[in-house]
C-alpha cells in the first residue's frame, strides 16, 4: 500500500515517473529498522504487554499504527499535497516495519534450528504474501469500480488490516505475565494513542527539515540522483571496513559489546570478522531484482495498456497461487538441501521473473500473458524470499534475535532500495539514450540478482567465532 499500489495511484494523478521513483525511498525505512529494533528487545508496550507479553504487545501497537496511517491515506487520496502523501506513507512503512521486527524476533525464538526454521518461515511467508496479494489486488479492484476510487480502496484495506487486532486481543495470556485482559487492553489503547500522535508529529517535523534541506541543495525532479545514490551505497561498507579491526579486538567487558543499543551489531562483526563484509555484500545484492521491480513494474504494465482491474485480477488468485507454491517449495528446500544450492536456485528463479517483464513488454496486450508474467515473478520471489529468510535467520546470534535479524534483513535491502528510488530517473535516462528504458531496467535488475551468486564460494566458508560472553549477560 506504500509501494506498488501507491505508485499506480500517483501515476493515475499524473505524477511524473521520476517523482514516483523518489517515493520508492519510503521503502528505505524498513532498511533502517535496526535503529529502533533494540528497543523492541529491551522495552515493552505499556498496557498491552502486561497481558499479551512483549512480542505481541509490540505487534498490537503496530497494528493500530498501520490502521490509522492507512485510513489517513484514504482521506488524502487525491494526492493534491504530495508532502502529506509522503508523510503518511512513511508512517505506514514505519509501523509495518515495527510489526515485522516483533514478529521476526518471535519466530526466531520459537524455532532456532534450520529444520524448524524452514517450515515456520514458509508458514510466515504464506501469511505475509497472501496478505500482500490480497491488499494489492483488492485495492486495485476496488479503485477501478465506478464511484469508488482510491479513497475507498485504501479504507477497505485499512478495515481488513484492522481485523488482526481483535484476533490478537482474543489470544490467551502470555505465560510470563500476570495482568488482567480488560486493564491491559484499556491501558494499551491509551498509551498507543499517545505514542502514535507523538510519533506522527515528530515524523512530520523531521520530514519538513529534510525536504527543506533537499530544496536548499538544489534537488528537484530534474536532478540526476543516480551518481549520488551510488556514492551513498558505498559509505556503509567503507565505514564498517574501517571499524572492523577495532571491533575484533574488543573484550567481552567492553561497553560497545555490552551496550543495549549497539551491542547486537558489534557482536555480528566480532563473530564473523572480515567475512562479515562479504556476507553483507552478498545479502545486499541477492534480492536486488525483486526490490527494483517492485516500484516500477506496475506503472510499466499500466503503460502497456492493461487496466487496473486486469492488473488486480493478475495480482489476486494468479499471484497468490504462484507465490504459495514458490514459498512452500523454497521452505522445503531450505530445510533439506545445502544452503549454497538453494540460494542459487532461488536467485535464478527470481531473475527469470524480472526477465518476464521484458518478455511481456514485447507481446500484444493479452490478460493471459499478463498472468504468465505475474506468475513467474511471484513464484520466483516467493521461493527466493523463503530461502533468504531461513539463511538470514541462521546467521543470527540467538542472544540477539530481534536486533540482529532486523540489522541483516534491513541491510539486505539498503542498496536495492537506494537504487530503486533512482529507478524512474534511470528509465528516463535509458529512453533519452535511445534504448527501451523499461526493458534495459528490468534486464539490469535481473542480472544484478544473479551477480550475488559470485559470492557463494566465499560465504560458504563463513563460520562464526565462538562467543566469549558470560552466560549471565544474556538477560
From TrEMBL:
Keyword Membrane tagged: yes
Membrane-spanning ranges: 15-36, 57-78, 149-171, 183-216, 228-247, 268-289, 316-334, 341-362, 368-393, 405-426, 438-460
Localisation per UniProt entry: Membrane
Main localization category: membrane
Gene3D superfamilies: MFS general substrate transporter like domains
UniProt KW Transmembrane keyword: yes
Entry membrane topology: Multi-pass membrane protein
Keywords on record: Membrane, Transmembrane, Transmembrane helix, Transport
GO cellular component: membrane
Protein name: Permease
